[in-house]
Amino acid sequence: MRKTLLLILSATLLIPMVSYSKNTSGKDREKRGMTMYAYPDKKSLMREIDSLVKANETLMNELDSLYRRYSDLEIYEELAEADSLNPGLDGISEPYIFPSDTALSRDSLLSIWYRMGDLTVDMEPSDIDSAVMLSDIPDSVYIDRLQRLSCFVSVPYNSIIRNHIIYYTQKMPDKMEKILGLSAYYIPIFEEIFNKYDLPLELSTMAVIESALNAKAVSRAKAKGMWQFMYSTAKRYGLTINSYVDERFDPIASADAAARYLRDSYRIFGDWNLAIASYNCGAGNVNKAIRRSGGSKDFWKIYPYLPRETRGYVPSFYAALYAMRYYKEHNLTPDVISMPAHTDTLRINKMLHFEQIAHFTGISIDELRAHNPQYLHDIIPGTEKEYILQLPYQYTNAFIDHESEIYTYNDSLYFNATAMKKIQQAAQPSKIIHRVRSGETLSHIALKYGVSVRNIQRWNGIGTNIRVGQRLAIYTNGSGPAASRSSSGGKVSTTTSNGYVMYTVRSGDTLWDIAKKFNGVTVSDLQRLNGLNRNSKIYPGKKLRIKKAQ
Q1: Which terminus of the chain has a smaller tally of CB atoms within 10 A, N or C?
Q2: Residue 233, SS3 per DSSP
Q3: What is the DSSP string of 157-193?
Q4: Dihedral of CA 287/289/295/300: which sign?
Q5: Is residue 549 classed as helix, strand or coil in its secondary structure?
Q6: Cα torsion angle, 96, 97, 103, 108, sign
Q7: The dihedral sign for the CA sequence 468, 470, 471, 472
Q8: Is 253 left (phi over 0), alpha (psi -120 to 50) or beta?
Q9: The 494-497 sheet, strands edge to edge
Q10: CA distances from 36 to 33, 44, 412, 421, 518 (A)
Q11: Please, are residues 288 and 277 in contact by the beta-carbon 8 Å criterion?
């Protein structure tokens, strides 16, 4: 380690030498503006090394403090990359921490479009980019139509975008017609929300590629709703998630959160293509792609460095815009979707069951669910806080006329202790077993499922090291067991000796891993208590002092 630092410092601290002749006199050198410089001696370099090591230790302690301060590791990880976000911070009036990438980093959510129920087709979106797709329409026609989109950005034309356009307009006509029918109802609602935040209205089309406008869409990584929010990001953007309610399924509430996310993302990148890409893979992955491309903020230059499933996301967005505008030219006819022309918003501050509403108004349970998909058990828990009920206008008068009767009708049946307990039990953590693949890191896995690295470590009792084939328990609703465990799967085993808590080193442990197992313990603490230095090695079976026994 010291040799490496010595070489690095020798290269970076060298003061440029001005060439001169051995016979050149000092006066001549002064006259010619030449100055002699010397290499720093070894003692100076060693002092510099020690200074850097101490500075590094200080930074590690600062990061450790942040790690403990932010229970959600995604914020911590975002802070660690804050230097790469600087260009996007210009003009922001107060310190800004971009929300969790994991919120919107998921397992090819775009492919929900292709996998979802009756929208299933044979190809994943990432395959479309490289596929060879044929069309009778000349490139010149596609180019002209894209230029006439009057989009908020200039839409380029290339083989990737062409493939996505062909796929949307020619390869899945039945599915596209269904989406066109739904869009007539939902897109105006989303445009009104995006207009409120002074955002380009075309961004509302992102709901098409996120979920095919299915309010109940759920990805393999448990991103939910029409706008496909992960648990942590949804909570950070103020969406309610509890045993009775999940506002990710509410098209209006989730669209509002999506608009705010995109607004924040644009503040960071200053480019809509990058903001759109970050909605799929997270700001961190976009920034990594920017760095790997040499600092470019052109989407097509960072394209090869983006996660595979994100590369087709922006092209798919433009293809969806194209299809929504030019569907008639492709002989597509929107399905007739039975949606009311108007719904009323009622404020509910008592416990209310959908069957109580249906009994007095005549509305069907299915209709209530369609307009209020955020209520998980047909119950509006109004005593918890005020919630809203969306009701087609033709049923509103009946609800108002019978409101007092509605709340009391069979309330002891719907809201008794047994029924409530059953709902609570149904809300237990959703557990997924993930098998580690080659090349995966804890950060990759955390991004995939929308959880923190720290929680994966806590749930599985591991440090920073994972191996191919290892099975990890993931709890996707933000909960899960709290017990600490060792890397071998058992509980952390400690003893006491001479007034200290003692830990037995296990295979794969590092000082950093061990420090993370104990609250308030740092690497420096372990080194000081055990007489270790930077070059000391630890091995399985070695006993380490951790801290004073309580």
Answers
A1: C
A2: helix
A3: --HHHHHHHHIIIII-HHHHHHHHHHHHHHHHHHHHH
A4: negative
A5: coil
A6: positive
A7: negative
A8: alpha
A9: 494-497, 500-504, 543-548
A10: 10, 18, 93, 83, 54
A11: no
What is the C-alpha separation between 255 and 332, in angstroms, rounded? 27
Q: What percent of the chain has pLDDT over 70?
A: 71
Question: What's phi and psi for 66, nearest 5 deg?
Answer: -65, -40
In 3D space, the residue among 320, 395, 385, 327 whose CA is nearest the CA of residue 351 turns out to be 385
User: What does each C-alpha distance from 413 to 145, 364, 385, 420, 482 come to in angstroms?
Assistant: 59, 20, 22, 10, 35
Tokens of 228: 């496909």
Yes or no: say if 88 and 268 are a contact pair by the CB < 8 Å rule: yes
Query: What is the structure's pLDDT at 519?
Result: 79
**Which contacts of 70-75 are long-range, i.e. CB under 8 A and separated by 24 or more positions?**
71/454, 72/100, 72/232, 72/452, 72/454, 73/446, 73/452, 73/453, 73/454, 73/455, 74/100, 74/101, 74/102, 74/103, 74/232, 74/446, 74/452, 75/99, 75/100
The C-alpha atoms of residue 411 and residue 510 are separated, in whole angstroms, by 58
Task: Label residues 287-313 b or e (16+ Cβ within 10 Å = b).
Answer: bbbbeebeeebebeebbebbbebbbbb
Reduce the DSSP state of residue 494 to 3 states and report it: strand
Encode pLDDT of 409-424 as tens digits: 999 899 888 877 777 6
Q: Please give the single-letter amino acid code of residue 250.
A: D
Rounded to two decimals, the pTM is 0.62
Do 374 and 250 contact (CB within 8 A), yes or no?
yes
Query: Which tokens belong to 490?
Result: 């058992």
